[in-house]
Design brief:
Chain lengths: 163, 137
């Protein structure tokens, strides 16, 4: 029915089909290999992670009861001590140092804002460091927690940045 | 007959290759989007207003309760006045963080000793609003 020439032609066409199919698969594999490389540029943003850590640090501090004064949370107790007696607890600074990652250099300032204070210049008070705020570097992430002390509303602000 | 069989065999091979190619592309696209979920979730979580609303609600209730002493002996007017003061305090605080906060239409239910009001929190393009009920004890 078919002579040798025709058979050779069909065989060649078949080989070309196979080569085309393999080429498509190889091209797809090359395409896939290049895709993750472009996507891997997007890394989890350090500032987003810092914001979550700072939020969590304040939230946990405000959800645990103080051992010294069980009617208050730890954050309320530390703030009470600072507002009334100007005492900054080492427990607070140790807690914050441990809450923020040590693997990357992270620095922070802790402030509180007295919303009832009429004098705007005195409304925001530096809590830690005691005397002078650290100079922020790059993008500063701010986390805050509203705290009630002696019927007055305060806003505790934690400023965090990575060096 | 033989020629037709050969042609269809070639066409099937091409078709198979195309199906395989599209399957691999789809799988790769899905894998990449799954891989990015962590990044997107992290970003959304760090900017989420839900946590802010949750904190404001609980602190609002706490502040109201601390300031309204003996609610059964307080007039509705006094309760609404305290409510307004607390709203002003909280709006001021939230504004320092670039967040608009407002609470309106307070309705005090004497029987349930609860205060229901509308609350709205806005930051950039994100807005959360709804009705909040706090218990006055």
């Amino acid at each position: 029915m078919f002579n040798d020439t025709e058979r050779n032609n069909y065989a060649q066409i078949h080989v070309i089909d196979a080569i085309t199919a393999v080429s498509i698969i190889v091209l797809v594999l090359i395409f896939i290999q290049t895709l993750p490389q472009t996507q891997s540029v997007i890394n989890p943003n350090t500032n987003n992670q810092l914001k979550i850590l700072a939020d969590d640090a304040l939230r946990i501090l405000d959800s645990q009861k103080s051992s010294e004064e069980p009617t208050l949370t730890k954050l309320e107790y530390y703030l009470y001590n600072h507002v009334i007696y100007n005492i900054t607890s080492h427990d607070l600074t140790n807690y914050l140092n441990n809450s923020l990652p040590a693997a990357i250099s992270v620095s922070y300032n802790l402030w509180y804002y007295n919303v009832s204070c009429d004098n705007a210049s005195n409304a925001t008070v530096l809590w830690f460091p005691k005397h002078k705020p650290r100079s922020p570097y790059g993008t500063v992430v701010r986390s805050h927690r509203i705290v009630l002390v002696n019927n007055r509303v305060y806003d505790v602000i934690l400023e965090v940045w990575s060096l | 007959m033989f020629q037709s069989s050969r042609s269809s065999s070639g066409a099937m091979l091409i078709l198979m290759a195309l199906i395989m190619a599209f399957s691999i592309i789809t799988a790769a696209a899905l894998a990449i989007s799954i891989n990015n979920i962590n990044i997107k979730t992290l970003s959304e979580r760090s900017r989420s207003l839900v946590k802010e609303l949750d904190m404001v609600e609980s602190k609002f209730e706490e502040t109201l309760n601390a300031r309204i002493i003996n609610p059964e002996f307080s007039s509705e007017e006094a309760i609404y006045k305290t409510f307004k003061e607390v709203v002003e305090n909280f709006s001021k605080i939230e504004l320092t963080h670039g967040i608009f906060f407002n609470a309106t239409n307070p309705e005090y239910n004497e029987t349930l000793a609860s205060l229901t009001f509308d609350v709205v929190i806005v930051q950039k393009n994100t807005k959360i609003s709804g009705k909040v009920t706090v218990t006055i004890t």
